[in-house]
Amino acid sequence: xxxxxxxxxxxxxxxxxxxxxxxxxxxxxxxxxxxxxxxxxxxxxxxxxxxxxxxxxxxxxxxxxxxxxxxxxxxxxxxxxxxxxxxxxxxxxxxxxxxxxxxxxxxxxxxxxxxxxxxxxxxxxxxxxxxxxxxxxxxxxxxxxxxxxxxxxxxxxxxxxxxxxxxxxxxxxxxxxxxxxxxxxxxxxxxxxxxxxxxxxxxxxxxxxxxxxxxxxxxxxxxxxxxxxxxxxxxxxxxxxxxxxxxxxxxxxxxxxxxxxxxxxxxxxxxxxxxxxxxxxxxxxxxxxxxxxxxxxxxxxxxxxxxxxxxxxxxxxxxxxxxxxxxxxxxxxxxxxxxxxxxxxxxxxxxxxxxxxxxxxxxxxxxxxxxxxxxxxxxxxxxxxxxxxxxxxxxxxxxxxxxxxxxxxxxxxxxxxxxxxxxxxxxxxxxxxxxxxxxxxxxxxxxxxxxxxxxxxxxxxxxxxxxxxxxxxxxxxxxxxxxxxxxxxxxxxxxxxxxxxxxxxxxxxxxxxxxxxxxxxxxxxxxxxxxxxxxxxxxxxxxxxxxxxxxxxxxxxxxxxxxxxxxxxxxxxxxxxxxxxxxxxxxxxxxxxxxxxxxxxxxxxxxxxxxxxxxxxxxxxxxxxxxxxxxxxxxxxxxxxxxxxxxxxxxxxxxxxxxxxxxxxxxxxxxxxxxxxxxxxxxxxxxxxxxxxxxxxxxxxxxxxxxxxxxxxxxxxxxxxxxxxxxxxxxxxxxxxxxxx
Length: 741
What we know:
The protein is α/β, with parallel strands linked by helices. The chain has helices spanning 6-42, 46-70, 75-89, 108-128, 130-141, 151-172, 175-198, 219-247, 255-268, 274-281, 283-296, 302-326, 334-359, 365-376, 384-390, 394-416, 426-442, 446-469, 509-512, 524-536, 569-576, 583-587, 598-603, 630-639, 657-665, 698-706; strands at 475-478, 481-488, 491-496, 499-505, 541-545, 561-566, 592-595, 610-615, 640-649, 671-677, 689-695. Strands 7-6-5-8-9-11-10 form a seven-stranded mixed sheet, sandwiched between helices. Helix 8 (219-247) runs antiparallel to helix 9 and helix 11 (283-296) runs parallel beside helix 18. The chain is flat and about 85 Å long.
């Protein structure tokens, strides 16, 4: 029988909330865990991880669709079916990748879904159904009580899993231990589901097949649910990308947008509505003011930009999720409601993560999603006097609307009169104040307010972006981000967000061929390149992981054999185009370039292929962990000649990569030294850099003896070696401060 006493009701609430929380925790734990397992085997190419994202989305949607289908059956049938599914899925424990190997020439779009589906598909599918199905069971077990507040438990579990993996699980457990931890969690989940099943009624009307007493939602209402879920999901992904590429490349910063996105559900679906209503009331104004300022991305105030972007995401997500909550159906139609939400969230992720990088050359989807949030967010007049103004006769409303839109156009014109909305001059300040006042006046009239928001977004960011997009070759976008080429007196720069990828001097032939930034002759890699003829003769063989603008090519000499490895085809196109950068065309016009994940590509090379191998892939926030494990160094040793040298560029503002290398190569036969280069004031386009050299023969001794400044590596005795089974950036995080570049 269903619980009828207060004690049994509390017991039911605690049990169902714990079950939902556990399932969501396991879902957010398994995704990064499987990614770590797959990285050494599949590499880091976009085709691989885009396919993986689609697999997760498909399995999640499948789980929600299964819950929707199952909820129509008798409660006892539901319990037996779901427990049976959980039992069958348990055959895939302990969790891990299938032993099947990627066939040569296999298409990732086909092979990756098959591998992940065969490895974790049944488990992910079964667990993903917990949140909607357990809420439906709770409603049945408690005689129709509103279950929507339990959705907060789902997002609390997701948030806990999100934080637990990078901060607690990964730093403390190897992959084998992580797998058994997840297996234990799955066993606990099965017991909790069994306990929930015992509370389902066995007799009486509630034990019969569901008969809907409320009308089915119409197509328009379904699309409304989908749209309200679409925009916050897309905004979450865009905020993460925007902060980590355009503002500051801090490791793990992506945790904050995703965490706030999950927290917004907890606020929006809470039984107590005070905080949710307060945030929703001021959401349109937040969209207008913070949206326009975030898009302007003034790099002089990165901490302020981070704060505004996160507040914007949280407020808009709460407002739109509140709309979903206010438009929720009766509990008997709960599973269909969550299925529509899941469809909207998946479509938002696909749009921002897969479609937009192909369609746009800049993150235009970000202002478009901000505009959509301004249109969809609940709107009410902020002051009674504004309501009276707009509620007059139709003629007065038209006049007022035209006046507001004309004022918006005038403010935009004023702001652009200096040539750039990012100059931060007094005219931009006046324009911002005018747009803010017009926005306050028009909140409550969606079409007019949308026009004000569109004008603000165009002024603060959109105009500059469109102007740069109109310049041929100035900007290139791929799944790795947006690459921007800018000219300044005497030089041309290539930047990926806040990370500089290369500089080429302009002017004479000598200047055009001059290595710059981290690769100047006095740097660690510059010394190694200049020593190549003395160390290995005229036919030295060089491999370089990370192409950038092709700067290192200008160290090449006749008779040498060079090969570059680059994961992003967009970077290859930029480096090969002499109209953009001419290092390759001038110094190594027929350079061999292998496109793909470097570790996988090197594993296919013959032994003793190189005398010098340069790894230059660790300077941004997204460190490819699989290139720094002990197994990766085995691959490097195999492709290097016995007396070969390995150069690693470890300059990183936030990660102590030198200590990682020291811990990883200890006891493996490598000897290592470091060189910290600090340019003088007279050097043009030179940057401070940290390079490590590793070797196993006499060439190592001869290189470090050729120049003063080489030193032994800093060692952290508490830091374990990175392996394919264990790697975590948390122990090597430096003190993080968000400063202006």
